[in-house]
């Protein structure tokens, strides 16, 4: 019951012993179970609201004690009442210090550091695998701890959180990522592998990995590969030879988790013939100022254009902010041909409303426009895989849906690792 309540985003459940009578007042026969957890965390810094008079905070940085070390636990920026913002600024002012009190310093250029002598009560959903609070909400100060002895910590100097990951392995850092834990990922793949493998099996994969607190798009040398995960040597477009991983069963998916894979981004080709595309992908990526209803209308218009070209398409929610239109090809084509064909179709969509569509990847051109991203098509290019979790708050997934779902206005992060989409017939 509590698991179901949490999946429904409820606060929790209240239950009573079956044989106990209903009586007023506090009763031992009643039990309240919350989906959220709470704990006490020392405040290590605050971010000040610029220009505010009187001075007030905008958010708090929190720490946690682990084996005598004070580690970063996350940022609380919700749950404050207006008077809390001013009160906290006054309360923390006498404790301002020049540098971070953390045992393992992190870069927070907006932080005003404080001695960790003031403790906050914080509600949260869980800890990430990197020890960060998920969805922290400020509930108040623990004034009853004001007389407690100051936190004693051991400090170890480290250059950065990514120092343990070789630079040659990092294609792109994802500093704001919030990946699921390995335990959560294993449980998820066990639940969905039969639905996910038709989309992911036997395809070369680009990986987002989470290793020792760092989340990044992987490149270069791979760690030892578990059984069930296969390797494919490929010729790089830039020259030389590289290795791509692929899987075909649950054992392979779990093997990817063991090496820290938190997102899977497959090629539009099978390992049987990596030089031929068997799928086209169109990513409808809205910028700020573009309404979700416009994205939906664009998806429906693009579906019509594809039908005119002889293609059937199906929609996939990205788990981010857009929609992917997936186009299975009746006959494979070269990646260059797929790139050219998808560009022509994207340009046709753009011509229907040039002021609101663009096919340019340049950010200056994408302002207040919907980016029709055809660049997902080409040798070695990828899009997030169907049923792949996203390393984002709440752990949404890239979910296959029906056109009826799209017409109803379903949001791109509607489904999560806990709440799966209904089955869709293709």
Describe this structure as you would to a colleague.
The protein folds into 2 domains: 37-145, OB fold (Dihydrolipoamide Acetyltransferase, E2P); 167-407, DNA primase, PRIM domain, CATH 3.90.920. By secondary structure, it is of the alpha+beta class. Helices cover 21% and strands 30% of the residues. It is globular, with a radius of gyration of 25 Å. Helix 3 packs across helix 4 and helix 5 crosses helix 6 (335-351). Strands 3, 4, 5, 6, 7 and 10 form a 6-stranded antiparallel β-sheet that branches. It has helices at residues 2-7, 82-92, 182-200, 250-258, 292-308, 335-351, 363-366, 403-407; strands spanning 12-16, 30-34, 37-48, 57-66, 69-76, 112-113, 119-124, 126-127, 133-134, 137-141, 170-173, 205-211, 214-218, 230-235, 241-246, 261-266, 276-286, 314-317, 323-334, 357-358, 370-373, 399-400. It has 8 helices and 22 strands. The longest helix is centred in the middle third of the chain and has 19 residues, at 182-200.
